[in-house]
Design goal:
The complex is a heterodimer.
Chain A (H helix, E strand, L loop, with lengths): L1 E6 L6 H10 L3 E6 L10 E4 L19 H10 L5 E4 L1 H8 L6 E3 L7 E9 L15 E8 L3 E3 L2 H9 L3 E5 L11 E5 L5 E4 L18 H12 L1
Parallel strand pairs in A: 1-2, 1-3, 3-4, 4-11
Antiparallel strand pairs in A: 5-8, 6-7, 6-9, 9-10, 10-11
Chain B lengths: L1 E9 L6 H12 L11 E8 L5 H15 L5 E8 L1
Classes of the chains: A alpha/beta, B alpha+beta.
Chain lengths: 222, 81
């Protein structure tokens, strides 16, 4: 099963994402922002980092790269996409996901092991988790505060589209403690915390993040 | 040479921690005038000659598509000499 990871200029966690896919048993395929070729991958991860230096707004310029044109088109037809951190920001800028990520409420860049609960297991990226399961994965961002209109917030909550929610103190001022959401169909998921940084005990706080990658692989095998 | 200016501000209901940080720094320096501060972005776009209505419409479109994120920001387009 081939899963792609896009490298944008300024991506940081692309290699970690490639590694996570391989550790979960998939074939990790590097993709490049300047090409529109998805290389026959069956799902795509948009990794964390600071694409285009976060110029203008996080994710705002990446959204118009050639590879994103292909991804946006495919995602609208059910192609699975996971955006992590900067990848989440790109998905919001692409309007594949509602809302926006803004400056953390205390203005600090936060790097910490974060407890989150998995609130929606009805996506190809989270099906392997138990509903309400609490996991510990790192957050590392300066602009992770999820904001949206009251109307969108109600829609996300009513439709059960909050995928991850922070447990305990709100780290960044996100509305309703939202750490991750999905689109209506569930194929597009964006999360601020980094599952690809919690795939083995040697390098991360837990192995809790690996299930994102195992879940999609299981889904693709059918 | 005329200049088309696009000013982008966070919508009033969106928390602006940068503006808040500036507002709390001012009194520390003895400036006591500020009730509150909000911070935004200003784009200065040079064009040759007087901007046409068509150009302004294009800038409006670009401001909506790229220069601002309509989910969290408002913008105004104006012409400066």
């Amino acid at each position: 099963m081939r899963i792609g990871v896009v490298t944008f200029p300024g991506s940081l966690d692309d290699r970690s994402a490639l590694r996570a896919i391989e550790l979960a048993g998939g074939v990790a395929v590097p993709l490049f922002h300047g090409e529109n070729d998805l290389k026959e991958v069956q799902a795509v991860v948009l990794p964390g980092g600071f694409s285009y230096g976060d110029y203008l707004r996080c994710g705002a310029i990446s959204r118009f790269s050639p590879i994103m044109e292909s991804i946006i088109l495919a995602a609208e037809h059910g192609f699975p996409v996971l955006g992590i951190c900067n990848g989440f920001q790109i998905l919001c800028e692409s309007h594949l996901l509602p809302g926006a990520l803004t400056r953390n409420a205390d203005l600090h860049f936060i790097c910490a092991d974060q407890k989150v609960s998995v609130e929606n297991t009805n996506t190809p990226w989270t099906r392997g988790y138990a509903q309400g399961q609490e996991i510990v994965i790192p957050i590392k961002n300066g602009e992770g505060s999820f904001q949206c209109s009251d109307e969108t917030l109600k829609e996300l909550e009513d439709e059960g589209r909050v995928v991850l929610r922070y447990v305990g103190k709100n780290p960044n001022g996100s509305r309703n403690l939202i750490a991750g959401i999905s689109n209506k169909r569930g194929n597009v998921v964006g999360v601020m915390p980094h599952p690809e940084q919690a795939i083995e005990n040697l390098t991360g706080p837990s192995e809790d993040g690996l299930m994102f990658f195992s879940s999609i692989l299981k889904e693709l095998v059918g | 040479m005329a200049m088309i200016v696009v000013e982008v501000m966070l919508k009033p209901e969106i928390l602006d921690p940068q503006g808040q940080a500036v507002a709390s720094a001012l009194p520390r320096l003895g400036f006591t005038f500020a009730q509150s501060v909000r911070q935004g972005k200003r784009f200065e776009i040079e064009v040759v000659g007087e901007p046409t209505a068509e150009q302004l419409a294009e800038v409006e479109k670009a401001a909506h598509t790229l220069l601002s994120n309509p989910v969290i920001e408002n913008f105004v387009v104006k012409v400066e000499k």
